[in-house]
């Protein structure tokens, strides 16, 4: 389903690879699936990509991109993204 473009399945694969749930943990694969789902405006994928860019998990650390993904997630109603965005502004 994820390969056919189902954003929910793509997010689930991102979670599975990110947590190493039943598979070897692989942040690169997690980021790949989150990017696919984020391109379809998945709030969970947008938030998780913000986190991945903030931490440098599976991607090159980039606080500007982290902010952009968090902001997009905030516009979709993510309270977690609001919190992380606030902390990111305090850090920078």
TrEMBL record:
SMART domains: SEL1. This is Sel1 repeat family protein. InterPro entries: Mitotic_Regulator (IPR052945), Sel1-like (IPR006597), TPR-like_helical_dom_sf (IPR011990). Transmembrane segments: none annotated. It comes from Salmonella enterica.
